[in-house]
Write a structure and sequence with these properties.
This protein is α+β, with helices and mostly antiparallel strands. It is built from 4 helices and 9 strands, in the order E-E-E-H-H-H-E-E-E-E-H-E-E. The chain is globular, with a radius of gyration of 16 Å. It starts with a strand and ends in a 16-residue tail after the last strand.
């Protein structure tokens, strides 16, 4: 089973992001991502972007930044963002509503071939995916784009800078980012 397509959209009614993943065996995984989860997982996602084999071989911070930017530009040129998400004929891996993700574990794949992400609900089975470098950069771009559409007052930046958050509606402070599991 291989990841075929990824879709990330803001649902205004839920005030959450809906992540949809389709696989080569026509299975679809649907997950809700919250504002708090996205804030907490961003440093880990950036860590994955900076842990590609070419980036790990680069010691000097400026050179590493240049390597990561080159990889990102190349990956984004090779990705078809305009292709519509093919939802027809997909069978939900988990029937019913999308699962609400409470935590995420991420790391470079032990065999050095990609990046492992484990999306974890509070109860029940989670979703494990392995993203190759190109798909990881596409995921980052989708996250950055959808955050503008969500209007949560968060800007996800590369290279890693603290996500900037504006005060939450009602004048309170924006929630502090949760640490990824």
């Amino acid at each position: 089973m291989q990841l075929r397509q990824m879709n990330l959209a803001y649902d205004r009614q839920q005030d959450r992001l809906l992540l949809r993943l389709s696989t080569s065996d026509d299975t679809e995984y649907r997950m809700w991502l919250t504002r708090r989860l996205v804030l907490g997982m961003w440093p880990g996602v950036v860590g994955l972007v900076q842990s590609t084999p070419a980036a790990r071989q680069t010691v000097h911070p400026e050179a590493k930044r240049a390597v990561v930017e080159f990889q990102r530009e190349h990956a984004l040129r090779e990705t078809e963002f305009g292709a519509p998400y093919q939802a027809e004929k997909l069978t939900p891996a988990i029937p019913g509503d999308p699962i609400l993700i409470w935590g995420i574990q991420m790391r470079p794949a032990p065999d050095g071939n990609g990046h492992d992400l484990n999306f974890l609900p509070k109860d029940g089975a989670g979703v494990h995916i392995r993203l190759q470098d190109q798909m990881l950069h596409a995921f980052v771009k989708l996250l950055q784009d959808v955050m503008r559409a969500a209007d949560w007052g968060i800007e996800l930046k590369l290279p890693l800078e603290a996500p900037s958050a504006t005060p939450a509606p009602g004048g309170g402070e924006a929630p502090k980012p949760a640490k990824p599991n």
